[in-house]
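Checklist before submission:
- one chain only
- standard amino acids only
- sequence pasted in full

Submission:
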Amino acid sequence: MPLRCITFDLDDTLWETGPVIARAEAHAHAWLERHAPRITSGRSESELLEHRRAHYATLPEHSHDFTALRRHWLISMAVEAGYDEQVGQEAFDVFWLARNEVVPFPSALKLLDDLKPEFTLGTITNGNADIAHIGLGHHFDFTVTAADAGVMKPHADIFTYALGLAGVDAGHALHVGDDPVTDVQGAKAAGMRAVWVNPDERPWDDTLGPAPDAIVAEVAELGAILEQWSRA
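Returned file contents:
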């Protein structure tokens, strides 16, 4: 079937994420030390991380929504330390703004420009990156987060939700992402084609199920894959 829609994962597919999250965590911690020191007093960053994970575990109903989880945790800590809830919200805003200070791969931006005239383009992410805030909204026709769909990748429902927004059947759609489970396995389970972005050239683990339809070292190589498929 001819492709009509291509969806992309965001973190570590269109930009490198690790340094961004580390910087956002550091900014948020520094802000708390300045503006709400009773929260951080006697707690290292690693201890706060463990506290956050434990708090998240008490909120299974929000397990698919990283924004709700972090906001709830920060507000809860603020109140417990004797601050107003607004302090927790402001701490969240500091983290969120820094978390969205990403630097897209230049070659990925060119690819999106090349694909836009021919395909419906969307994003599917488990995270809380905001493509409109980042300045990439004009590249895409729709975006789906786990918070929108109510489930996280690799659950097939998040891909089905995206297909509904695109108005296409799974057989006419392709998903591109770096995670062999959440991106490849999830998309294949939903009936879509999948391209695995695999910069480390890891071998495919057959225990995960059907292999991706193609493997690329970087997302910019997708154009060549699509060209090959169009001639097949």
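Reviewer check: Residues 5-15+103-231 form a domain with the Rossmann fold fold (CATH 3.40.50.1000).
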